Q: What sequence folds into this?
């Protein structure tokens, strides 16, 4: 240790510190006894002598490790060359000369005996040896050609597929070699390296670990009707897989025609068919274009914990399907009856692209989930792909699911960050989320997702479709017959598309956001008990047409149904026939004319010309046999939010029922919201309306326009109509085209004056209590209603209001006790009138005298 140990900081120039530094340097350089010496801060430091000792020890350690490595790798040390002559009787024997290790080269036959023990003989003998150095070892590890024993170098690091006899010329059948490699990989837990080449494989069932070079391909372009290339066993790992697949016949079912099959369409009822823990990473699968095609990958039935990440599926026949399985009759796989079913679960598909072979020609489907649960799809990209993602309940839903899967099917579906570029304009939507089973495959009661007992839970977030400049006629986003859907869908391009780019059909208990600038807008039928959120804008440079509607809503109406037996009050089912196959969904309301029968309590499939029974709530009315029945699946409970701007009509709702329009309406070309059709019932309007009606043409320009012939219970409350500045092109803020309304309330709205009256509505002619419109509490300077229209509200069951024309009503249905005041007050004149006999317009008598002071 140093003499003074002043602990002064680094850089100190004091005499004591300089003395200590000189002493430390002397010991560092010249000490031949101590391996360490404490510096002036008390920290032990290696002397030069200590470093030499440590280096020598480390080199000895390296040599011992290398010797042990060679022994464990199957090598046998014969001794130093100088101790010979040595006889080599096997190729795994080696010698040492001047500190380097040597073994026989491949050109020298065994046995071989060295000729001497010195440098002179070595010059002759060295021609028979190969140096065992790091580069040589690495090359032989790569090729899998080192000698092997119980713990060979191949066992430690892996072997190549060619080691097991594979040729890799694309013509020789390498299946047998692959199966040998697989048994080795499974037994050792070590990988098989697939080096550059084309390996022709057929129906190889494997479960080992494989690592592919970029130039290594598994191929078969001549699959028959019951063939696959690879079939997964448990714990299969394919890292870097490259495959090329083609068919010479149509696969008889999804069980065949695959580059990789996981599970099986037919499976036993118990768990013995389980395939799990499969990894397919960093892959490329190319489909060969022929008259026939299969799939890139299909996962069937009882499979779980499957991860598919970072890959490309290119060309025809490279779809990826995850599909239920069970006791499927493989001779009749698509229509045969199933008595039990297994369902794929815990599936992850991430960073996968489904691409056209040439960037122009449409490809087949992308990713398909049929009756799965707990699946994730993230960062999925499609190009010219007609059905990039589908999530469906399959043919069986969960009717015959095994106990493990019961109540879970079609739940936990999580789809995020998907982009489809230029999908083909077909009836196969770019993304399809449905809750309607396809083919009836069980003897159990058939249900849809709308039925309360059916499980359904689906997320589809940040889904984008790029329509480019094409004019599409089919919707590319489809949500149909679904429940508990949380989604966000966006359209890019589509300026030339005037038909809806998204369709939300008979979907409930969901929250869906749509955004983009496509003039075709979004359509919804029977879309109920949900939130529909919007960020839609139409480019105002388009040539407008009546089809350019931002959000087109309608009640899903079904006719052609006839009662086969009379319905009595209190009946809980109806017997009907339909002229066409149809589905009557849970929650639909059945009417015979104006007579309400009841709500459907279970989704029912109708077969044309066959008598079917539909369960309903207790019938409210008696209806005779032979009566025509109409089914209405309304949008009751739908709330519309967000902002819609720039369309011909921003919203068009046909046969409105139970919708809450809490939406911001901007720059509607002709109008804001149009409610047309036969009826408008139980609707609410709020939100803001700005700049609507800039068409300023012959057509009436209105913020809220109700043209339905029958109107009941409509509330317009808290709206802001052009609140910031006067809109010179708007005719009315609200216009009702019919007097057949009852229960209309227009209250607490604010805004600037339109060019005509703010609320254009005539007195109600409906002969019911509380039928007259109520207009009150609005802050809009100017004329709020036509001159003969009463404004006011019901107080204690009686109407209290006023008329601008200071005259007894000549229109509308009035009840006894209703009162109307004059708005022009004259001293000594009459205060107003009271209805003394109900009717249209009823009998009115004057009341009250205005005092002179």
A:
């Amino acid at each position: 240790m140093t003499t003074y140990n002043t602990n002064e900081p680094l850089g100190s120039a004091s005499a004591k510190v300089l003395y200590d530094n000189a002493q430390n340097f002397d010991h560092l350089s010249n000490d031949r006894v101590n391996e360490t010496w404490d510096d002036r801060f008390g920290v032990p430091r290696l002397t030069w002598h200590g470093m030499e000792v440590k280096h020598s020890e480390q080199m000895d350690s390296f040599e011992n490790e290398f010797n042990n490595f060679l022994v464990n790798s199957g090598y046998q040390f014969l001794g130093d060359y100088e101790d010979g002559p040595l006889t080599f009787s096997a190729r795994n024997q080696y010698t040492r000369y001047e500190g380097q290790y040597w073994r026989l080269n491949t050109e020298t036959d065994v046995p071989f005996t060295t000729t001497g023990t010195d440098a002179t003989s070595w010059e002759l003998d060295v021609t028979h040896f190969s140096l065992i150095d790091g580069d040589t070892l690495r090359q032989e590890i790569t090729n899998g050609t080192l000698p092997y024993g119980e713990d060979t170098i191949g066992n430690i690091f892996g072997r190549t597929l060619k080691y097991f006899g594979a040729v890799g010329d694309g013509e020789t059948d390498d299946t047998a070699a692959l199966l040998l490699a697989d048994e080795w990989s499974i037994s050792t837990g070590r990988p098989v390296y697939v080096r550059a080449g084309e390996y022709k494989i057929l129906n190889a069932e494997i479960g080992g670990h494989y690592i592919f070079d970029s130039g290594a391909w598994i191929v078969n372009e001549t699959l028959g009707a019951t063939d696959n290339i690879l079939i997964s066993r448990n714990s299969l790992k394919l890292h870097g897989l490259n495959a090329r697949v083609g068919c010479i016949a149509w696969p008889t079912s999804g069980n065949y025609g695959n580059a990789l099959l996981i599970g099986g369409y037919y499976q036993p009822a118990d768990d013995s068919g389980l395939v799990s823990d499969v990894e397919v990473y960093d892959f490329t699968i190319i489909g060969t274009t022929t008259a026939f095609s299969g799939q890139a990958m299909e996962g069937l039935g009882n499979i779980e914990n499957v991860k598919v990440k970072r890959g490309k599926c290119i060309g025809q026949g490279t779809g990826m399907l995850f599909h239920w399985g069970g006791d499927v009759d493989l001779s009749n796989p698509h229509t045969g009856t199933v008595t039990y079913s297994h369902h794929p679960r815990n599936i992850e598909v991430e960073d996968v692209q489904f691409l056209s072979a040439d960037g122009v020609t449409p490809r087949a489907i992308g990713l398909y989930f049929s009756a799965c649960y707990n699946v994730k799809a993230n960062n999925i990209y499609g190009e010219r792909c007609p059905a990039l993602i589908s999530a469906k309940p399959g043919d069986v839903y969960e009717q015959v699911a095994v106990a493990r899967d019961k109540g879970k099917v079609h739940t936990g579906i999580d789809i995020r960050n998907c982009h489809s570029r230029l999908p083909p304009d077909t009836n196969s939507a770019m993304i399809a989320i449905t809750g309607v089973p396809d083919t009836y495959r069980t003897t159990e009661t058939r249900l849809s997702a709308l039925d309360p007992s059916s499980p359904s839970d689906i997320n589809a977030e940040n889904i984008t479709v790029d329509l480019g400049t094409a004019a599409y006629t089919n919707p590319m986003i489809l949500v149909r017959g679904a429940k508990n859907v949380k989604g966000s869908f966006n359209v890019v391009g589509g300026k030339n598309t005037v038909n809806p780019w998204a369709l939300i059909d008979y979907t409930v208990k969901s929250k869906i956001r749509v955004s983009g600038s496509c003039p075709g807008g979004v359509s919804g039928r029977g879309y109920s008990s949900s939130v529909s959120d919007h960020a839609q804008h139409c480019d105002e440079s388009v040539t407008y047409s009546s089809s350019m509607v931002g959000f087109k809503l309608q009640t899903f109406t079904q006719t052609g149904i006839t009662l086969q037996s009379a319905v009595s009050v209190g009946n809980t089912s109806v017997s009907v026939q339909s002229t066409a196959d149809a589905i009557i969904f849970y929650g639909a309301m059945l009417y015979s004319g104006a007579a309400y029968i009841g709500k459907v309590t279970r989704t029912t499939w109708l077969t044309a010309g066959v008598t079917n029974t539909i369960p309903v709530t207790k019938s409210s009315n008696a209806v005779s046999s032979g009566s025509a029945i109409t089914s209405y699946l309304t949008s009751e409970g739908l709330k519309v939010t967000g902002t819609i701007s720039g369309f011909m009509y921003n919203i068009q709702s046909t046969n409105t029922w139970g919708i809450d329009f809490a939406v911001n309406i901007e720059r509607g070309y002709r109008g804001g919201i149009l409610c047309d059709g036969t009826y408008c019932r139980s609707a609410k309007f709020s939100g803001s309306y700005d700049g609507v009606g800039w068409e300023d043409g012959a057509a009436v320009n209105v913020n809220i326009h109700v043209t339905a012939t029958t109107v009941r219970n409509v509330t317009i409350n808290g709206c802001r109509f052009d609140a910031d500045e006067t809109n010179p092109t708007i005719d009315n803020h609200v216009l009702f085209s019919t007097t057949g309304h009852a229960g209309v309330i227009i209250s607490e709205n604010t805004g600037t004056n339109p060019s005509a009256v703010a609320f254009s509505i005539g007195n109600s002619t409906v002969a019911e209590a509380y039928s007259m419109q109520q207009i009150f509490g609005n802050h809009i300077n100017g004329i709020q209603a036509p001159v003969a229209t009463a404004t006011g509200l019901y107080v204690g069951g009686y109407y209290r209001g006023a008329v601008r024309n200071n005259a007894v009503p000549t229109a509308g249905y009035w009840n006894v006790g209703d009162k109307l005041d004059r708005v022009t007050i004259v001293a000594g004149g009459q205060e107003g009138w009271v209805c003394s006999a109900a009717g249209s317009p009823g009998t009115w008598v004057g009341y009250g005298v205005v005092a002179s002071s």
User: Anything to note?
Assistant: The helical segments are 15-30, 48-72, 119-125, 134-143, 153-157, 175-188.
